[in-house]
Amino acid sequence: MSSKPSVLVFDLGGVLVDWNGIDPLMRLSGGTLPREDARRFWIENPWVARLDLGECTPQAFCAAMVDALHLGLSQQAMQEQLSAWLVGCYPGAGELLDTLSQTFPLAALSNNNALHWNKIEREFGLLGHFQHTFASHLLHLRKPDLAIYRHVEQVLDLQGEQIAFFDDNIECVEAARAIGWQAFHTVGFEQLQATLRAQGWL
Is the distance from CB of 119 to CB of 58 less than 8 angstroms? Predict the structure, then answer.
């Protein structure tokens, strides 16, 4: 069990929000894209970085994505797919945050984009649970680059083990651990809950 943090910081997609860009991407590729390659696409592809950093529109990203992966879709069809892959909050996510907020300040730290962020704001009723939201496309910083973690520390006026962080991508978790955060690799809502209980924070 770790020391009690001063704040809990959550990734959104794959942790509190039902976002799966991996399985649909594999299906669209007709099985030519292995699972790990599909996962790493969202971490390593330069067009994903541009989208996350707010340096291109979702429309431009979708056109580039279709071309890069030879998906045989129109840009508009790809954009509709991309939006649909963001399903909603996991059942119980809001209630979990309500419970945690009685003990901890809460923050969100998400690689995101204008298309998904607008949908989260309009439809999901999630962002009001957080005292701070750190979205990559608004900050022009993205995980796992060190600068975004340092920005979070500066805004929160906290550092190291004072911050507990939950993310479904191991690269983002390892970067947080490298600067001393208590960082946990949690894939999906059930694993998030189990980790919080194991730490004695839920």
Answer: no
Tell me the Cα Rg of the chain: 17
Question: What's 166's domain CATH number?
Answer: 3.40.50.1000
Residue in 150, 138, 199 with CA at minimum distance from that of residue 175:
150
Q: Which of 147, 146, 135 is nearest to 111 (CA)?
A: 135
Which alpha helices (H) appear in 16-145, and where do they start and end?
22-28, 35-44, 46-52, 58-69, 75-84, 93-100, 114-119, 136-139
Question: What residues contact 35, with CB distance under 8 A and at least 6 apart?
Answer: 22, 26
Q: Count of domains in the chain? A: 2
List, for residues 98-119, the tens digit of each pLDDT value.
999 999 999 999 999 999 999 9
